[in-house]
Structure formats: structure tokens, C-alpha cells
Amino acid sequence: MFQRSPVGMAMTDAAGRITAWNEAAVGVLGLSREGALGQPLPAPVPEQAARWAEVLARAAAGEVLNLLEFQFRTPSGRVRDVALSLLPIEGAGLGVIAQDVTERNAPARRAAEAQHRLEVVLEAIPAPIFFKDAAGVYLGCNRAFEAYLGRPRARIVGLGVHEVAPPELAEIYRHADDALLAAGGTQVYETQVRWADGALREVVFSKATFLGEDGKVAGLVGSILDITERKRAEQALRASEQKFRAAFDQAKVGLVLLGRGARFVEMNPAFREMLGRSDEALRRLRLADVLHPDDLAAGMASYESLVAGERDHASSLRRVLREDGALRYVRIGASAIRDAEGAFEAVVAVIEDVTEKELATQALRESEARASLAGRLASLGTLAAGVAHEINNPLAYVVANLDFVRGALTAAEGSEVRQALEDAAEGAARVSRIVQDLKGFARVDDAVARVDLVRVLRSAANLARAEVKRRARLEVDLPPLPRVAGSTARLGQVFLNLLVNAAQAIPEGDPEAHEVRLRAWASAKQVMVEVSDTGTGIDPAIRHRIFDPFFTTKPVGIGTGLGLAISHQIVTAAGGTIEVESAPGRGATFRVTLPASAENDAVSAA
Q: Residue limits of the PAS domain (predicted)?
């Protein structure tokens, strides 16, 4: 029975050496089958050595000890829970009964281990954590909660909130606890707590109820999250945003945020006023919707380069259109905004209205150009007067001698010689007319007078004929016309410029295939003059710019971009209008309308 018993048994002598043992004791106490006899009883795990020594001493003194639990390590290394009974045997030693209770103790051990892990976790959490029963009495807490209250756990457990918190705050906490315990579940709210050092902190309380064995709410567990710094940061951020918004809204220059697709996301009052559009209207638009057509491609390319990260900043002078169609010149400085990973978020642009400054600059350039042109015209007038004087004297001799020779010839002296003299006389007369036309056009005179428009148009045609004949036929259709108010030289400059431009719009090489036509007609109050050509025409994309100062499609050194601008100014100053009709490949027609003089006497075209 001793050997077959499932309960481990062993006997020792008075010196504590094993004198007998059974097989079950091997697995329970970790005995060695080969060398157990004569050896002392195995000791439990080192952590229980002191208690083991005390128990052996009591047994040796004759005390019967029943079911004392120890842990023994088996030869395989496993630790077993063993319930020991030590029975003193008079005159012999001890009888040892050892029962393995490892499986019986497993649930309790796991619960103890879980409890230990929970305690370790709670102690490691820096936020204060506490437990209360259904009456609001503290059941426990972690070290952080001790630090928060400034008292040890022993002076917290068993007390209510009114005994550990300031009165003004304790009432708030108790009211919240009662509401949670009554409703169950969880509770989160912001409030204030006074730390042990006296500092008042902003916190978030997070609480949840737990149930007892009867399934009813048995208490609550709560944690305190200090959000004081976060609240301060939020307040600082709000203050910063308010300052930014105030600066944004009060800025005298336009400030704009452009999102994806160059859409208007945010804009300040200065920009809205600049474009004459409401905030709602702008939010429906893109940058492309307000840029001048001629600046559209360059403006969008600049935006896309910022989005793509090809450059960090862009600065440019652009033209934008107000809602009423008015044109404004703006100086734009733009930069891209990116997030922490470098992804595009928006483009921020500072936009300054420089319309008045730009118009003043253009006016200065035009004034300088007109002054330069006036200087050249004055020099040309002086030169023309001198040339006319030098040519007229010898030309008078030539004409007089031709007339003398023609008068001296009789009809019988040969028609060929007479015809040659007639041709020479006609050539001399033409030279005389060209000199007179040159003197008239070169004279700079801004005085308003009643102008013989037929004579002006004839003179312009004569001076332009050499330029036109290399490219086209020049057709002139001039009926009698009323006089107009203006300057002979200035109006001559207009029509000469239109005729030369018409000729230059036609390629050289086939003059018979092309035509430049000068025609005029009159109504009761107006005189209309048209200069048309069969040249290349004007691209519709640039037609609206042809009267802009310094705009030209001619190569550098050929055109200044001032001819049509000055012509437009001269005609407008005379109370008239100048318009153009054109289609690519089908030539162009410029139409000048001038008011007839009050003294409406027609001038013959002869």
C-alpha cells in the first residue's frame, strides 16, 4: 500500500535523512530514485527556504503540521504546488505525506498573476487612476493618483471624495460619480483639479462602472488626463489664428489662397475689392477665369511650376479683369504651401494693384516716344525744307528750259523729240509734287484747321506708291469730300502709315495678284476713309492689341509698335474713330471716320 499509494510518502530518521519513499513522492517532491535514501528531504524553491526551515524546526519539536503548501521543482524542471503534512514519529523521525495540488491551484494562480500584471500596468501609467465602490469610497489607486493628491494610498483607500478633494471640486466629482453609478456605462467630461502642489489643472475625467458578482453596478474606475498644456496650446493657436485673420483681412494688398486647379479658396477684402467680386463669386472661379487672355498661358504655367515643386517662389506682372470688365495691372508674388511630407496643399499669393503706376509708366514711355518722334519729324521737316529749296531752284531751270525747247520746236521737227520733252516735263512736274508733299508731311503743326482731306489722301498715296508698287497695285477712289477739322501733317501721317502697313502686309514677288485700295466717301456729317489690302490679315487673338503702344508683329528694327497707337491717338483727338476688319489670309480693312467741318464745302478730287 505504501508503494502503490497515489499520494507521495516518505519517512526520515531523527537526523532528517530519508529512510523510505514511494514512487509518487518522486514526481511530487522531486526525489532521485537512485540516490534518495540517506539524503535529506528536498527543499522547496529558494523563495520559500526561510519558511521551510521554520516548518522543519516545528516538526522536529514534535508539532504535527497538516497541509502546508510549498512549491517544489521536479527533475524535469517544472514547479509543482505541493500540500505537505509532517507527522513526527516518536523515536524515529518524520512521516511525510505530499499531495500535488498544482491543477487545483491553477485558477487562483492565474488570477493572482493577472492581478499582478494589472497592478504593474497601473503603476506604470503616468495618468492618475482610481477605484471606488458603489458608495463612492476609494478602493484603490496607482502611484500617479497618490502624487496627484499628495498623500499615500493608505490615507486614500476607505475615504470618500469629500475627504480627499477641495470642497468646491469635491461636489462636482461626487455629482458626476452619482450620475454614472446610476446610469452605468462610461462617462467622459472636462473639469479642473487642484494638484498637490496647489496648481489648478485642466483635465479630462474618463470613468466606467464595473459589476459585482450579482451583476449589479459595484463601483467605478476612473482616470485623469491632464490637458492643461493642450488647452494652452489651443488657446495660443486660436489667438494666433485671430491675429492672422485680422492681419489677413486688414491688409492693404490682396491676399489669396489657391487650391488644386488654381481655385480660389480664401481671399481677403482687398482682393475682392480689387476684382469687384464677392467672396461667393470668387469661390466659384479659378485663376484662369480672371486673368487677361494674353496672360493666361504664362500665369497658369507659373502656378503649375509651384504645384510641381519646380520652384519655391514666383513673381510676375499680370493683367486681371474685374467683374465689370475693367482691366487692372497687378504685381503677384506667390509661394507654395506644403505639409510635413512635402505634399502640395495650396499656393499663397500676395497681389498688389499697380494699375496707376503701370499706366503712368506706359504714358511716360509713350510721351518719350512721341517726343522722340516729334524730334525726328522736326529734323525731317528741316531737312525736307532744305532739300525742297535745293531741288526747287535747279528744277525751275529744268522746267523753264523744257518749256523753252518745246516752244521752239515746230510740229515738223519730229514727234519723237517732242514726246520725249513732254515725258521729261511730266517727270519734272511729278518731282515738284513729291517735294511739295514731303514738305507738307514733314511740317510738325498741331494747330487745328479746315483740312483739304482729298489733298492729304493724294499726297499720302504719292509718298506710299514706291512702297506699294513692289507688292501690289495701288487703287485710289476719291470723290469730292468736305473739309475736316484737324492738322494736315498729322492726318497725313495717319493715312501714310495705314498705306505703308497695308503694303507691308503683302509679300513681295507678285504685285499684279494683290491690291491696296484707298477710297473715301462722305455723308452729311462725316467723312469715311478706308485703306484695305489683300495681305495676310490679322490673327483674331491679337486684333484687340494692335492699337496698344509698342505692340508690333514686325521684326526687331522694322517696327516700333507706335504707328497705329499714334494714328489712333491723332484720329481720336480729331473727334473721329478708327476701326479694323480682318480675317487671317483675307487681308484687312482699316476704316477712319472723321467729323466734317462745320463749313461744309466739298473739295474736288481732281
A: 1-63, 114-184, 240-310
